[in-house]
Amino acid sequence: MALAVAENLFRGSGADTRLLAGRSRRNGKLVFPCPGGSEGEDFDVVELAPEGTLWSYTIQRFKPKPPFNGDGDEVNFKPYGVGYVELPGQLIVEGRIVANDLSALRIGQPMRVTTEAYRTNETGEAVLTYAFRPASEGEQA
Amino acid sequence: MSDIVIVGAGIHPFGRTDGRTGLEQGVFAIREALADAGLEWSDMEFAFGGSSAAGSADAVLPRLGLTGIPFINVNNGCATGGSALLSGYSAIKSGEFDIGVVVGFDKHPRGAFNADPEASGLPRWYGETGMMLTTQFFANKITRYMALHGISQRTLGLVAEKAFDNAVHAPHAWRRSPVDLDTILNAPMVSDPLTKFMFCSPAEGGAALIIASERKARELGLTGPKVRGAAIRTRPVGSFEVFAPALEIERGKSAVELASAAAWEMAGVGPDDVDVAQLQDTESGAEIMHMAENGFCKDGEQERLIAEGATRLGGRMPVNTDGGCLACGEPIGASGLRQVYENVQQLRDRANGRQVEGARIAYSQVYGAPGLSGCVVLER
After folding, report:
1. Distance, CA of B282 to chain centre
2. Second CATH level (architecture) for the domain B4-111+200-379
3. Digitized pLDDT (tens) for each residue of chain B, 380 residues in all
4. From chain A, which residues contact B within 8 Å (Cβ)?
5. B134, B232, B253, B269 from B262: Cα distances, Å
6. pTM for this model (two decimals)
7. SS3 breakdown of chain B: % helix, strand, coil, rounded to 5?
8. What is the C-alpha separation between A121 and B75, in angstroms, rounded?
9. Per residue in A7-25, is it b (16+ CB within 10 Å) or e — as a string?
10. Could you tell me which chain B residue has the CA closest to the CA of A58?
């Protein structure tokens, strides 16, 4: 059993993950993440395309300060990717990047949305966030 | 209309000063600026000032004198100092005041800035999953820029090498020892492609300016550089800024491009007229991209210009002559005024060891979260 880090952020998991955006009822523009609360009343929740191309990227090499609450301490912190993926005709979305070799990423390469268990909560459950993975790598266990 | 003249400039050395609060560093800078102008605190008619993390700027008042003057606290991220200057500029331009002080100071804990998602109108998960870091924004922006415009990682290293070389000659700088290019390039990565020497560090410091109407300066027998242009602009649609979970596909101009265009127009001069420039160098790539965004070159030309040494002291467009943020560190509230302080030194031929001979027009530009930029054009 895995938990999502937030509601109305994405649906499903793994290869079936879909990001949720808001479409403005006023001007039709897409907004990610979908605004919540009273602001959210002006938006319809829509799924974004699952595939796009890598727009830019970097690798987070040190453990961020709070509110970051991912697994690992300063010593055994595992660097993770953070980048932007252009979803054609929709938006350029920022997300964590998972890849077999983060240093082999290239701008323009096809990427696919997925989920990543970025932390384990107090009761031992995995907490999922969305992420992007090179489309060529497929979905992995 | 009367010009505005910087009749005094003061600074508290940047870096780390244990045992001295940010506020005390601001007071120090104001006293230095007053001494520079040969004036007293009681001569000041107004003050604008701010800090991001070191408290209310008007807390300097009990230390300097409760003279009853209007003191307006400014809090505008990395453009706090620039905003204080612009506010003081407008106060004098309006004709309401003739002379006053603008000040910025700060003192940040060690390590990268930690951000509060709610304070920026962002959801909690954005911070919890580790995406709310300014370092990631700058790394993402330069990674794409390098790919589109043919900038090499070596050029990132050359920018940092220059910063530390220049800082050797700047008494107010923090890191004043040269670091060779191989050390810079082979240092641990912070956020690829940027190594630890290519990022500025949060720091401490204070800077203050005494500004006056031309008439008042003449009356007091004081001279100094004139403020020819000063502008602040915020992020337009289609720009790429810090803390952006998503971007529009159609790309637009940046806050820097808007602010610089406004400053050039106000000053009636352009990038070709500038003799010395201080450009926001939160990291090496920012200086490179800001060269183009401020109009000093076309996208991609930086690779050749920096290899030729054009931006070094003695080059044809010296940039960040005191080592910039890379060598001075980043006390958010003070950085913008540090740039102007350095330009004042250049225009008064006081930049010993780093002087740009005969500098007549000096330019400075800050950039910061959540996507704003402030530019100032000075004339000797």
Report:
1. 9
2. 3-Layer(aba) Sandwich (3.40)
3. 578 999 999 999 999 999 999 999 999 999 999 999 999 999 999 999 999 888 889 899 999 999 999 999 998 888 899 899 999 999 999 999 999 999 999 999 877 676 788 888 899 999 999 999 999 999 999 999 999 999 999 999 999 999 999 999 999 999 999 999 999 999 999 999 999 999 999 999 999 999 999 999 999 999 999 999 999 999 999 999 989 999 999 999 999 999 999 999 999 999 999 999 999 999 999 999 999 999 999 999 999 999 999 999 999 999 999 999 999 999 999 999 999 999 999 999 999 999 999 999 999 999 988 889 999 999 99
4. 5-6, 9, 21, 31-33, 36, 55-62, 64-70, 80, 82-84, 86, 89-96, 103, 107, 118, 129
5. 26, 8, 13, 11
6. 0.95
7. 40, 20, 40
8. 37
9. ebbbeebeeebebbbbbee
10. B192
**Residue A6 and residue B123: Cβ atoms within 8 Å?**
yes
Instruction: State both tokens at B350.
Output: 């006081």
Torsion of CA B365, B366, B372, B375, to 10 degrees: -30
Where along chain A do its domains lie? 2-137
- Number of Cβ pairs closer than 8 Å across A and B? 110
Omega of the bond leading into A64 within 30 degrees of 0 (cis) = no
How many Å lie between the alpha carbon of B153 and the closest alpha carbon of chain A? Answer: 14
B352 vs B356: CA distance, rounded Å: 10
Query: ipTM score here?
Result: 0.96
